[in-house]
Amino acid sequence: MESQTISLNVHPQILDLYEVLEKNGLHKQKEDVQSLVGYVESMEYNLSVMINEIQEMHAEVKRLHDRGIRNQCGKIISKAEDKIHQAKTMVSVIKVRLIDAAGNAVKTCKEKGKSALIRAVEAMRVSTALSKIKSGFSHMSQSMRQSAGQIDVIRGELHEVGGHMKNAGRALLGRSAKQAGNLEADKGMLAKLRDFLESCGDTFSKMERIADKLIDKIQQNGEQTKQKQSVKSDLRQLKTERLEKSKAPVIKEQAR
Q1: Cα(89)–Cα(95) distance, rounded to whole angstroms?
Q2: Which among 32, 72, 129, 132 counts the fewest CB atoms within 10 Å?
Q3: Running DSSP on this structure, what letter comes out for residue 9?
Q4: Taking every pair of C-alpha atoms in the chain, what is the biggest distance, in angstroms?
Q5: In whole angstroms, how far apart are CA 85 and each of 16, 105, 197, 235?
Q6: H or E element: which one contains 147?
């Protein structure tokens, strides 16, 4: 779909709406729409980064030596991937609806004037859209942290196995040395998976908090400029953090 390939903040229908709102002196309405557009753009970027990262995690899971653990982790990562794609779909749907609503608002203004334009912008229900996104991201944050907890359980079980092997492995030195090496490699990969899931949970929580700030900004007339700058700063920081995490080198977990 063409609307999905064009960046929202330079989409013709969005730019037309900005122009019409500006010409009619509807500066607050324009700022509200700009806030939602900026938020959707930032969320699209962060979710795209997460989708790329989850593919790397699938590759990490395939390198796990223990088949049972490999299967468990594969299910956990697949579930996390589903959540990320659900979030991407949610944001994409809001993007399409926003574009359609912008086109309708501009058309309404040309046909019926400023009063009809105001009603059309109000019908876009920016705060309602943000509230739905906020609720969705809250659930996804909890899901990611639950998945990270499941990885912790697997790590604990693997650690216990490693302890038993250290106690009994001396009698089979050659064989146990190889198994111990595999265990340490698996422990390092599990640590990386766990950190990734926690990172996703943190990102969804930040998305939720930014949505909350935007809702407050839109609903309150006072101190709009200060709140606007705070939200923009949060969005820039979130984008930078996600990019840095995606480029971070792998650090092996130290043997416990």
Answers
A1: 10
A2: 132
A3: G
A4: 88
A5: 30, 30, 15, 20
A6: helix 126-168
Length of the chain, in residues: 256
- Gyration radius (Cα) of the chain, Å: 24
Per-residue tokens: 156: 């604990």
Query: What's the rounded Cα separation, in Å, for the pair 181 and 197?
Result: 25
Going by C-alpha positions, the residue among 13, 199, 204, 2 that lies closest to residue 91 is 204
What's the Cα-to-Cα distance from 212 to each of 107, 138, 216, 218, 231, rounded to whole Å?
A: 31, 11, 6, 10, 10
- Number of helices and strands in the chain (H, E): 8, 0
pLDDT tens digits, 82-103: 999 999 998 888 888 899 999 9
Q: Is the pLDDT of residue 193 over 70?
A: yes
Q: Which of 204, 87, 88 is nearest to 141 (CA)?
A: 204
Euclidean distance between CA atoms 148 and 132, whole angstroms:
25
Residue 215 near residue 131, CB atoms below 8 Å: yes
Return d(Cα 247, Cα 209) in angstroms, integer. 25
The pTM (predicted TM-score) of the whole model is: 0.73
For residues 189 and 60, the answer to whether their CB atoms sit within 8 Å is yes
The residues near 19 (Cβ < 8 Å, ≥ 6 apart) are none
